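# nightly structure sweep
# worker-07 picked up a monomer target from the shared queue
# config: single-sequence mode, recycle default, output format = structure tokens
# input follows
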Amino acid sequence: MKIAQIAPLAESVPPRLYGGTERIVSYITEELVRQGHDVTLFASGDSRTSARLVPICDTALRLDPRVQDPLPHHMILLDEVRRRVDDFDVLHFHIDLLHAPLVSELAGRTLTTLHGRLDLPDLMPFYRTFPDLPLVSISNDQRRPMPPVNWVGTVHHGLPRDLLPVTEHPQGDYLAFLGRISPEKRPDRAIAIAAATGMTLKIAAKIDKADQAYWDEVIAPMIRVTPNVEYIGEINERQKAEFLGNALGLLFPIDWPEPFGLVMIEAMACGTPVIAFRCGSVPEIIDHGVSGFIVDTVEEAVTAVSHLDRIDRTRVRATFERRFSVERMVTDYLDLYRRLPDADAAAISYRRFRAEATGLQIVA
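# output follows
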């Protein structure tokens, strides 16, 4: 199949540091290429891929100090997709909603994976206006706030099996928090758990400008008075394997409708059990007592920490391989591509066009 992957421009594909959506786009793209599909990636120019890259901007927008407004760059992205739309059997969008008016007439060969939260009131009138756009959720829980729309499937994220090696015997004696410093991610809960257990907590997280005040006023003061908590900062992919693999457990103390939570399966790939609060996608991702523990309170999380030694890390890894590999994710997406009502017609039409251009004959 000739497949377009359309990525957001905030980060490169894959991202240098934080960036869950762009990371997943990279995994999908590379696995599709590995399986022999003809893939074109629309992304920032500093992206790295074995697919055909259409660079929209020189560098990822978040890392470019010249960029003040990302919207014009995404308009350029959409125009580039528009000019090439007839080149593809399937167009797979990962940019939430910007493209909906553009593709309304050819929605039958598009797929849109929604990577973010959907409980925001401004989204309701939008998706009522475009009810036929084929949408994919990344967890079943993500769908709950939405009006009736054209859901065509739920595809849980997946990772390459060789990305993060399993660590059966961790060298560290610490708990890990990985992700983003923000109120909904609740690093304050993680610090409270560390304080109650006396265990070392290492926090590897980015701080967005929007969350700087939360860091300054809430989290930094808590760290200053909790000597067993260490803030490491944002880490890259190479550092992640060691950070997660050597942790006794990952704390995922969220307090919002998390659409997926990529860090949970990254920890599982390392064999590291997860202690996660019962929000959003968590019950779909964590098998309680197998890949970690699902809790409702800080007190339950403290108890779960004392039970981490009951979790078999090789079984955690086996659960990851069975449920969250990139092969499983891409198999699910290919099934959805082939079920799109206009995908086959587009493929036949394109092959006929190419055949006529070269003087060949084709049988539909």
